[in-house]
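Service request form, structural biology core

Requester: graduate student, group of Dr. S.
Request type: structure prediction, single chain
Budget code: on file
Notes: please return the result as structure tokens.

Sequence provided:
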Amino acid sequence: MTLYTTITDAITDYTGLSPTAFFTISAMMVVVYKLVSTMFVAADDYVAVKRDQQFILREPVQIGDITEEELRPYNGSDPNKPLLMAIKGKIYDVSRSRMFYGPGGPYALFAGRDASRALALMSFEPSDLTGNIEGLSASELEVLEDWEAKFEEKYVKVGQLVSERTSTVEDETKVE
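Core staff response, request fulfilled:
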């Protein structure tokens, strides 16, 4: 009985509440917590969802010289391919910034393309998604140089854009 008296006195002294009010409020807090926590994903489910959505970051692979058409599939639509983007004909692996350049990201339209003109103009217009930098002002070219420097510092250059594929010796022997 002394334990009960000690506990009730301690509750009253520390909280200023009667033991009945204290236990009622405590029980209501537990009920509210359980109710609110069921509105969100359970911890175990969250881990499973995160694992399913996690992109496996691979080492950048050198792809060499490719055309703009060959660059298009590297826009993030296939999770098994790296996420690539070009500036001034230099191709960079931007897979490590998938949240920005991947599907649904704010710069997703740049992926799989040479975005030189769009970056120089700071434009999201589809017509500006080109490597053509003719007609840009000196300040726009300076902006583009800044973007190029940032990409060179942050991402690995994995290739170069070429205007068209050159025929190889193998192609010539197949024709004969």
